[in-house]
Fold each of these.
Amino acid sequence: MANTFKFGNGNWAVKDGYALAYNDENNNFKPLPFDFTRASSATRVNKQGLIETVPSGKPRIDFTDNTSGHLLLEPSRTNSLPYSLEYDNNTYYTKTNSTITTQSGVSPDGSNTAYKLQDTNDSGATSHYIQQASGYRATITYNAIKSGSVFVKAGTKNQVQVRLVNGSGSFSYIMGNFDLETETILTGASANASDISYELQNYGNGWYRCIVKGSWTLSNVTQTALQVFIADSSLAALPNIHNYQGDGTGNLFVWGQMIEAGSYATSYIPTEGSSVTRVAETANDAGNSTVFNDSEGVLFFETATLANDSTFRNICISDSSTSDKIQFYYYGNNNNIAYVIVSASSTQASDNTKTLSNALEFNKIAIKYKQNDFAVWVNGTEVSIDSSGNTPTGLKEFAFDDGNGGSPFYGKVKDLKVYNTALTDTELQNLTS
């Protein structure tokens, strides 16, 4: 048994235009690079837990939710807010019964750029929030799902209300209430909106990314603003705009706002005067014909998707076409997975009836292929077998697509291995456990 190809598992090497795989047999990275493209800069979370910018064309090894890191592959997205920061500029942001103080602590990127949002001393209950000024809001098609996000850290207040709200047209909003101390989503509400969901992500050092998602049901909504409300302990009981009596000391810290068209939030895209697009990423053409054994082998990977949606997200060893390939893919919105073995343009084995408990979490998956002996293992359990069929020929390329550049995989890749022999059931169980 030879592990002829491996990638990740905490052992990373990247450079401009390449993500390097590793070959145990010659003990180096160089022969097996992934061709990587992204024609724009992008951000990642580094080993120190800080958001940093990665230049155009360089793969991102991200450490958001694990200490070993993972290759992050994302689709094209645009932050439609022209100013993701600069909350202190009254031209770009308006403050209601609140004030903003700059350089108020360490932000998620490690710099002293956190903004303190503080309430005013009021004679009665009122709302205390910040939002984009007219002319500096997002313009996204009304019925497209929008993901609005902002980084928030507790100050003297632990709770925050985040709302997507129309900047024009009939009144519409999507509102989420979050408790940063207990790390919980408290309540939510909406008006003239659909496809509603909420998410709270822990970024360390007290920072959380609060996310609200949905689409407008009224076509006259042409602009969308993101509002951040300081809240007190009565927030959980209120489904509407939060009001309380401020005393001039209630505060939260805010940083990095974003509104993007899409059913899930992607990595932070900073803007400084105009909307910014992060271009889609591709990684393919790794390996060669001496690495992949046509007659038998195992493809193993530990991956997580970015969403349960209707897109197809593929991982494939092929002959650089769809004629001969070992293909795995995520599809649908119910944690659906499938595989197909194709030889001479004819399907030899396949199964599209299986699901994962959660595709958004890392899952260990192995596909065994051998003449009349195919199997799929997931997290220590054999989930599919097929005892009839031929193996592909001419295998020479690993790609995060369908073998022909289509339906690319968008997600997180923690570990990837290829073996040149069909492993035993015990070996497959151990590998995927």
Amino acid sequence: MKNTDYFKNKKVTIVGLARSGFACANLLYDLDADVSITDNKDTDVIRSNILKLKSKEIKVELGKHTQEFIRNKDLLVVSPGVPNDALPVIWAEQFKIPIISEVELAGILCPATIIAVTGSSGKTTVITLIGQILEASGKRVFVCGNIGNPFCGEVQNLQIGDFVSLETSSFQLEGTKSFKPKIAVMLNFSKNHLDRHKDMEEYLEAKKRIFINQEKDDFLVLNSEDHVLRDLAKEARSKTVFFSQTREFNPNQAAVVVVGTLLGIDKNICLKIFDAFKGLEHRMEYVAEIDKVKFINDSKSTLVESTIWAIKNISSPIILIAGGKDKGLDYRGILDVAPNKIKEIILIGEAKEKIKSALRGSLSFDVAGTLEEAVMAAFSKAQPQDVVLLSPMCSSFDMFSNYEERGNVFKRAVYALAKNKN
């Protein structure tokens, strides 16, 4: 690592003790910081993370936030799921305490070449493919984001000459100050996270932080078919390179090929990786077939656009399970592809009434209290050759800790259903 004395003896409070908060706490403890953690939740997962902290010297409060954990600190590190109006953030601003994200923290310490990817959708697929082409070309690479470890969980393993393929959300980017990837990739920009950002302009400003500190020897990779992103080229000091969908490559693959070219990786390596790539868990993942009804886990779909893509790529009639925590999206978008495809929607979560209101009169609905109940209801309504599709169009945080947990609950419910049928 570099800048290892940067956090020494600093009093740091971390907000949130999920994956990234846990990784930050152990990293900062190793760097001789005075570490505190505050989380207003008190769950089994969080308590299990406490047991895995490196020292009992790390102070923790659960189920609440108190000013004592914020006051007189040198730094506040905010986990991705923590909103800007959370009490620790408000107090830190009042006390004039600097606030940064996990990505900023790890970026200060990182000696490796960072390839950072952002966008409204496709980030996890692209960082995975970038990681695979780098590995196939003999490079030492660490893939960090919604898959793999958080950036802070890997930075102690990084050396000069290594590469980081890093997924960066708007939540993480808005907490950066000096973050500067060698290659910044912006895949697309569409309506998202308006439960967090006050409007699309604020959302875009957060995304732009991926390249704001880049210099002339860095690279910004933009989608030429996205008019919002295309226009950002004039704001960048770095070298701008464009990608676009072709007959040979979808947009995600096209972006990876451009990154590969910038890194001197042979295009044939990209082709071999694309050919072997079987997709990601929780993204259009085949789960099982029961009585000729197929079940597909698309829990990673937290956008209307992602669910539209899923519907388009299924030829059979669909029983759709949707809902969760609303992100301020317009659910009427699926009406363009729903006719003759969606037989019924089973709604769950906080957003169920908003979705029902947006689509009332166009589609049939049922409501379930839990995801397990939704699976049972969907199966009871399905006919042979139908597909039960979990593609929520919402985040998972009303019912689950993340989309992975949501997808795993769906799969367990399907497996239990299959077992009971045998």
Amino acid sequence: MPRAPKPLTTAQIKAITTPGRHRVAENLYLRITNVGGRFWDARFTVGLKRRWKALGEANRVPLQVAKRLALEIHEEETDAVTMRKFGTVWHEYIEHHAGSWRSAIHYRQWIQTGDDYVLPVLGEIPVGDIKPFHVVEVLRPLWKDKHETARRIRGRVALVIDYENARVGADRTNPADFRYIKNLLPRHRQVEKHHAAPTVDELKALLATLGDDPSHQCLRWLAMTACRTSEARYARCEDVVDGVWTIPADKMKGGREHRVMAPWQPTGKGLIFHRKGQALSLNAMRSLLIKREIKWTVHGIRACFSTWATAEGYDSRLIENQLAHADDNQVRAAYARGDLLDQREAMMRQWCCAISKFVCYDFDSLTKTIPIERKNATGWR
């Protein structure tokens, strides 16, 4: 975005003699008539249309006074555009965008944080009247103890304000922009936290005790593929073909189709793991760990796999592909279009043998697991 030109000095303004409007400061212009008259004009926007308002003769109104009047008129006229109350816009934004959110959890979080924190403070204020200190009033009670929640709320408030500004065509700064509120909040020292992860031996010990309950089987599937919770919960029989599990793009965090070797070949149709036809709840596997007083998390299994694979000397590209992590290097990502499935197969064979007393494929039907004692020298087939 190009930088706005610097305001002109008094000497520079006096040197202007060409008829027309000449920008001298933000929202302030010098208008020179064909007969040499010099006047101050303020510029502002109503909807998507530019408007002008005369401020008087330049010879009578000092430059600093003209700048102040131009700024006041710009703010008054812009905010005079019909802007609805924040609460109304908040709910409309959710209604318009909920269909594009892949997770129902995201929708519930918007509703809950709005009801609990945002709307009690901002709900009845017109969007055009919201100032940075209003936003800070929402964030301050959460800033220290629930910093991540506060950070997300600030982003949501900013999105809603941008939405309303775009609707009415208002050219105004966003009071929820972190640049305007960071000095009003205490400095937060970011402490990086990671999901608690098991060791390979701890994970192997757990898997050895799992039974036939759907949540147990789902956790075993997740561990053997190093996939995410939602990907395992919504795994379908028809997505597994010839031992390869193709996860649809709409079930992936990155929104791209992903292939991994399946731990076993499921039979039938529909969800692989379900209770009476319904997908397992979000916390089904987490509850399993909590009941056993296990401190590490389900997501920590992915970290366990990554640590193990790195220690075994596998290429980082294979590990990151298995975890479905996007490459931060955009140029490299643009050229690396394969998913390295064939190369990942050997790695996942060894991983499954490291954490389970079963290997993943039946040599004949691919429908059941085989005790590890029957595996051949290659460890898989």
Amino acid sequence: MDHRTRVNSRRATVMIYTVVIMTVLMGMGVFAVDVGRILLSKSQLQDAADAAARYAASGMANSSTPQATAQAHALAAIGDCKIEGAALNSSHLTTTVGTWNALTNVFTATTTNPNAVKVDLTYRFTSGNGRPPLFLNVIAPSQQPLVHASVVTKVAATASTFSPPASGNLWLSGMPAGTLTKNFRNDNSTVWDYAGTSELMRQSPLPLQLSSMNLSEGDALSFEGLSGTASYVAGATNSADGDSGFVVSIGQTRPNSVPTNNLNGIANVRAPIGAVMAVFLNDDSPTSGSTPSCLDFASASQRNYSSISPQLKQVFFVGDGKKSDGTVQKIIVPPGATRVCIGMMDAWQWNDNIGNFSFKVYGSPVVTTVR
């Protein structure tokens, strides 16, 4: 073999080795990228599961329907989460309520008096996601990798059950027994209301001392677990959300705008008739001091708040205590508040309202991740 042949042979061998080595290196690089993508997705999925489990537990603690509420809260929590640009949804989520045994560190699924929530999130890399792992798609196209994240959170919250009467006129909150409220209707004494006593409430709303529920300013409380029936007129019933087609304020039916007047130092409000409403007070008479602005709950979006921070003497909408997606609404106790009064929305004449809604008032839940 002459010199030229030997050189060409060596070049061919080097070329072959180069191609093989480059192929191996490229394969290793692609594999490393795939593994990095999977690890990143796993981390993102774990973050989403942590958030979902904590939000699910906080919702469950403030609900009489723990499984449904936990699922709604977990789904809401992952609503903005994405894995490699793909949005997470209910198909990736499993929410289970149960009990956590701190002695054995064991979670047991049950809907009876649950104190914990387990959230599982899964994400599979498939061609349906638009970007399956390249190397793994070549060597195992039928077995695309699945990433999984699981979190268990434990929760504790205080709850008290109350049954405010439908005849409770919020604008008699904190007023002494015998106080007459004409409800801006000086022309008709039959629509006037009177404050009562704890034994005979007449048209006084139900007052709750915040200290009795271990609540103070800055805490979040929730009203939920509503049952019973009530009505702003005899012969009919309405839900705790009221009649959305019939918006009123005190002294007006179907007002075109938010009212600006007040009664007994308590701000007016625009809301559906028959809705459960509330107002925070301090220990002083509501007639003392300035009156805050009037709130507006005429539209569904205004009533569909996640959290609200009303001022003292500012009547606000409670309804059934949940948003339209099933998540529990939070109400922040304002500075100086010592009590909250609960009643029902009407334009005038609370004295002919009938029935009551029974519900639970929940304090701020304490959520702990346990696994």
